[in-house]
Design brief:
Blueprint lengths: L2 H13 L2 H7 L4 H15 L4 E3 L4 E3 L1 H27 L5 E7 L1 H6 L1 H11 L3 E7 L5 H6 L5 E5 L8 E9 L1 E6 L14 E5 L3 H13 L4 E6 L2 H9 L4 E5 H6 L6 E4 L8 E8 L6 H8 L3
Parallel strand pairs: 3-4, 3-5, 8-9, 8-10
Antiparallel strand pairs: 1-2, 5-12, 6-12, 7-10, 7-11
Length: about 280
């Protein structure tokens, strides 16, 4: 068993697809299959159930995945510490964020990191910010940018970057609804996450059952639908400021206002032992 073999196993366990895992590990699917069979032989248990159409982790595979991630984290910490001592910090860091966050924060963050540590490579994934914490907790990403929840999960570290209001938006020209009108207004809301939780709480305190027209994954899509006149939406103000459609919607001043977002970096506390992760943590935005 070696480090490369463990990385191949983790790639397959996370994606459950031999083609993508072999591409990520720079090996052929047949070589990956042989590596997994050898690993299962060494462990003495079946780690994957597989047929011609699907791959799934066994219960033993799930247990082994948690161990493999810990081993790889420890290996990276030792390797990067030695590099740091030699003055040549290098390696790969995976980062997850929304499209908005990628151009709101990453230019400044990565510009400073690139200047101080030019040999650090970044593997960037973008998607719904509501998945940020789950991806870090699962070990799929080293770092993520997202909104801090009211209760931070155990073992998760958070570094604030900025605060952003959570705002109601409506098409240009639409007047602010009166309290009795909120029950009839079509609402375009996030499918889940912090913004949805706070919006649902706002309506409960108002004593109104909202008329949900659409539940959307991704804040940018909410701005688009509101600009087209489909209803009223709720988004972080930072998303609105960066949107090319900002001029086609207007803010609705509501009372009480929704609690603001605190946006920042997430990583596992144990990963802060790694000089690479600490380099991100030390960068000021």
């Amino acid at each position: 068993m070696d480090i490369r073999q463990l990385r191949q196993f983790v790639h397959l366990a996370e994606g459950l697809h031999f083609g993508r895992a072999s591409a990520a590990g720079n090996v052929s699917p047949s070589a990956l299959s042989r590596s997994i069979r050898q690993l299962e032989k060494d462990v003495g248990a079946l780690l994957f159930e597989r047929d011609n159409r699907s791959v799934t982790l066994t219960r033993q595979g799930e247990t082994f995945l948690a161990w493999a991630r810990d081993v790889l984290t420890g290996w990276d910490v030792v390797r990067h510490t030695v590099q740091e001592q030699s003055g040549d910090l290098q390696g790969e860091v995976s980062l997850y964020c929304s499209v908005t966050a990628s151009y709101s924060f990453l230019f400044e963050l990565l510009g400073k990191l690139r200047r101080d540590h030019p040999r650090i490579e970044l593997k960037l994934h973008t998607g719904d910010p509501e998945h940020a914490i789950a991806r870090v907790m699962a070990g799929s990403e080293d770092i993520a940018i997202g909104a801090r929840p009211d209760v931070l999960p155990a073992g998760l570290a958070f570094k604030p970057i900025t605060r952003s209001r959570l705002v109601f938006i409506a098409p240009v020209g639409k007047p602010r609804p009166k309290p009795r009108e909120w029950a009839t207004i079509p609402m375009i809301l996030p499918e889940s996450g912090l913004a949805r939780q706070r919006t649902d709480q706002w309506f409960r305190e108002l004593g109104v059952q909202p008329r949900v027209y659409a539940q959307v994954a991704g804040n940018e899509a909410i701005v688009s639908m509101v600009s087209l006149g489909f209803g009223v939406g709720v988004v972080p103000e930072i998303v609105l400021e960066a949107s090319p459609l900002a001029g086609k919607v207007r803010l609705l001043q509501v009372r009480p206002a929704l609690a603001p977002y605190e946006v920042g970096l997430f990583t596992l506390e144990k990963k802060l032992r790694s000089p690479l992760i600490r380099a991100f943590w030390a960068a000021k935005i």
